[in-house]
Design goal:
alpha/beta, single chain, Ribosomal Protein L15, Chain: K, domain 2, two-stranded parallel ribbon, 3-stranded parallel β-sheet, 91 residues, 15% strand
C-alpha cells in the first residue's frame, strides 16, 4: 500500500501527553485557613480523584488566599489569582 494511503489524514494522538488531575482555585477556598495544599492533602479532602497522575491548579473562580498552595503546575490564570490579594469586602 502506498505511503500516502497509510498516513493519517487528520491529526494524530500524542503518546507522550501528560494527563493531570485538576482542581479549580475556588475549590481551594473550602480548605481550612493556613493549610498547606499538597496532592495528598487535596485527595484526603475529597477535592481530587484517586490516582497517581500529577496535579494541576486551574484558574476558575477567585482565591481568598487562606490556604498556602504548593502544587508543581498551574495555569497562568491560576498563578495570577494566587498572587493577587483578596479585595476588601464592602460593609
Amino acid at each position: 500500500m502506498p505511503l500516502k494511503r497509510r498516513v493519517p489524514k487528520r491529526g494524530f494522538t500524542n503518546i507522550f501527553r501528560t494527563e493531570y488531575r485538576t482542581v479549580n482555585v475556588d475549590r481551594l477556598n473550602e480548605l481550612p485557613a493556613g493549610s498547606q495544599v499538597t496532592p495528598e492533602f487535596l485527595q484526603k479532602a475529597g477535592l481530587l480523584r484517586k490516582g497517581t497522575r500529577p496535579v494541576k491548579i486551574l484558574g476558575n473562580g477567585d482565591a481568598d488566599g487562606r490556604a498556602r498552595r504548593c502544587a508543581p503546575t498551574s495555569t497562568p490564570a491560576a498563578r495570577c489569582r494566587r498572587s493577587r490579594r483578596p479585595a476588601a469586602r464592602p460593609r
